């Protein structure tokens, strides 16, 4: 196959990208995205500040621009993200306790109702664990509303749209030896044991010199899959885009039956939140990089 999406589909997987609504008028961008990818994540447009800028007043205009572009171009959509400490609108930042808890529930219900039956995977909760060696939850207004906020979010989401796979999504959880990885593993194991509805774990996979790729990523994916959840690589970018590392990550997903697919966090380097690291598969002018060829060849069986 000669596109990433078609090559990934040979093994029943997808290959996706983040899409920014502000770039949909750029024909170089849209022609690459339409050709190569078969899964779309809205880079910012489905986040809390975008979809509920005033409490109880939902706004899906930017989110729907991304969603409609995806569907009109034959792609599926991952939803990102319903409960997160970051990119909260001002009204939510100022809430705490039971009022915040109710606002979180109302937000999940409002967004998931709008997209009911239309989103294959939702990142229900994003980035709830602390960086570093503590293995603790990240401090946030959501965390201070009670340690059970994550499971409440997942139970709410399951009831709101039973057709969506419900994912927990985080970064710096790819290396099996990291405390954050172990903390996330313990949470997912606990959820599965107690019947909290969780279907998938998203590994963002923002690799750079501070958080390098390690070959034990495959072990991590296997260990989570063994808990009875699907896994996905949800926001992949790699500093300098070394072809060999992109191939290794691709092989790690292919090696794990429950790895649903790979999403890169943007199209061209110039579209990246870390554009100075040139971490993506296409050059600023839209040409294919060596990393692109490495991923495509790997998906095609090496
Ligand atoms: O749209 C406004 C614009 O109107 C304003 O003038 C400008 C001034 O700063 O800001 C623009 O919004 C920016 C937005 O991206 C759209 O470009 C925000 O400031 C900026 O903070 C925001 O950054 C996004 C970041 O999440 C926010 O946390 C990045 O694009 C996005 O790639 C990044 O994505 C996250 C994932 O959601 C979660 N995992 C990590 C990943 C990388 O940080």
Automatic annotation (TrEMBL):
Query: What residues does the GH10 domain cover?
Result: 1-298
Shown part of the complete sequence: 43 to 344 of 477
UniProt keyword Transport, yes or no: no
Task: State the superkingdom.
Answer: Bacteria
**Catalytic activity field:** Endohydrolysis of (1->4)-beta-D-xylosidic linkages in xylans
The reply to whether Ligase figures as a keyword in the UniProt entry is no
- This protein's UniProt keywords: Carbohydrate metabolism, Glycosidase, Hydrolase, Polysaccharide degradation, Signal, Xylan degradation
Q: Name the active site residues.
A: 235 (nucleophile)
EC number assigned by the record: 3.2.1.8
Q: What is this protein called?
A: Beta-xylanase
Q: Which family does it belong to?
A: Belongs to the glycosyl hydrolase 10 (cellulase F) family.
